[in-house]
């Protein structure tokens, strides 16, 4: 009799050791797969194989938290419940932090399962599993539930690490994209202040963040004419910077062969449409001045109107068209032409000058800006730009919410 008991105890011990060895092997295989950076689908498939063939679990649901909603990422056995029905089970389980039996549960969905297994990390619920058709009982039950919880926990940690790794890569890509965009934009912004007999230019560029969507340029066309442009490209990042670079090259190329601003703007519109498929647009003010004839031709394409100041008077230059890049064909296009008196100043700006946090509309508007230019229009371009920014800081008292670009041109 004693020999039979000893033999039975040895058999049970051997069975337990073999079971523990199998569990360790399963965990080892999962760990190796994680270290090899196997895909999520492969890890889930390995988990299902272990549960089905090693533990003979006939019904399984594995839900993981994502944006405060639980998504079922693994399911087999029985009639598959709709996603909202499964997600709703969490309301009955949220306060339970250790494996529990579900047979006889008041919720009909949960009562169809044998056990609930939660996965927590520092009191934060990460995932849970529902197990049904599970034949284990008696002394091995707690061991099996602990093993299942450990196995699922390893998978959840691996998935969390994959998520964090993807987020880090995305952040690094975004950072590099912004650095490239800054490099591109820095190549586009004129490096020197343009000064020569008969014309003086002052510019101020204040990006809201590292990279903005504003652009300006000023260049001589020939002995008698020069052209300037101020623009605002929709969007941010490298795609906006590349569009800006393409726009600058196109503008300078077209200005070298076309005398007509209307033709230049029409062709620029087609180029932007072709390059962006209507997903981005550009507002701009484009002007061409002939020092010999004293004629200014300009087009305002949906941009903040440039202010012309001369001898104590000022008015906005509004003629033009809508933004470019929004329509295959511009719905209208009116080119302005003005005879310019000596000592005339042009104050060009982007909408960031008007938009600030805690905007005080009583103290700052396009009408107030016009009044300010009238009161200070005899300053040098650089001094006027600084005076406008100082005025905003002291009167509006709000941080800009967009890029601010000022381009002030005085012609003698």
From TrEMBL:
Gene3D superfamilies: PPM-type phosphatase domain. SUPFAM superfamilies: GAF domain-like, PP2C-like. Residues 196-411 form the PPM-type phosphatase domain. SMART domains: PP2C_SIG. Keywords: Hydrolase. This is Serine/threonine-protein phosphatase. It comes from Mucilaginibacter pankratovii.
């Amino acid at each position: 009799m004693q020999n039979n008991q000893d033999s039975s105890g040895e058999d049970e011990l051997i069975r337990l050791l073999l079971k523990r060895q199998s569990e360790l092997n399963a965990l080892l295989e999962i760990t190796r797969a994680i270290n090899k950076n196997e895909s999520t689908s492969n890890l889930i498939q390995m988990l299902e194989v272990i549960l089905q063939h090693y533990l003979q679990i006939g019904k399984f649901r594995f839900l993981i938290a994502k944006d405060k909603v639980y998504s079922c990422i693994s399911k087999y056995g029985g009639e598959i419940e709709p996603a909202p029905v499964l997600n709703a089970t969490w309301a009955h389980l949220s306060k339970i932090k250790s494996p529990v039996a579900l047979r006889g549960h008041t919720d009909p969905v949960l009562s169809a399962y044998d056990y609930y297994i939660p996965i927590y990390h520092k009191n934060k619920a990460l995932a849970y599993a529902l197990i049904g058709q599970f034949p284990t009982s008696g002394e091995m039950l707690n061991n099996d539930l602990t093993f299942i919880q450990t196995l699922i926990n390893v998978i959840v940690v691996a998935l969390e690490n994959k998520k964090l790794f993807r987020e880090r890569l995305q952040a690094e890509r975004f950072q590099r994209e912004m650095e490239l965009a800054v490099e591109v934009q820095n190549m586009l912004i004129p490096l020197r202040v343009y000064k020569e007999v008969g014309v003086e230019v002052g510019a101020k560029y204040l990006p809201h963040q590292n990279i903005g969507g504003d652009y300006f340029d000023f260049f001589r066309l020939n002995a008698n004419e020069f052209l300037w442009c101020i623009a605002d490209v929709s969007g941010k990042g490298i795609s906006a910077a590349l569009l800006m670079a393409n726009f600058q090259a196109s503008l300078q190329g077209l200005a070298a062969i076309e005398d007509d601003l209307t033709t230049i703007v029409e062709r620029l519109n087609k180029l932007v449409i072709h390059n962006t498929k209507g997903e981005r647009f550009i507002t701009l003010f484009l002007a061409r001045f002939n020092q010999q004839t004293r004629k200014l031709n300009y087009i305002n394409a949906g941009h903040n109107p440039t202010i012309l100041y001369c001898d104590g008077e000022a008015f906005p230059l509004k003629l033009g068209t809508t933004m470019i890049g929004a329509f295959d064909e511009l719905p209208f296009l009116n080119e302005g032409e003005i005879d310019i008196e000596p000592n005339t100043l042009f104050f060009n700006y982007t909408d960031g000058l008007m938009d600030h946090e805690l905007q005080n509309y009583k103290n700052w508007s396009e009408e107030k800006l016009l009044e300010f230019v009238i009161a200070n229009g005899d300053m040098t371009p650089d001094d006027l730009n600084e005076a406008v920014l100082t005025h905003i800081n002291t009167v509006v008292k709000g941080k800009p919410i967009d890029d601010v670009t000022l381009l002030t041109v005085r012609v003698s």
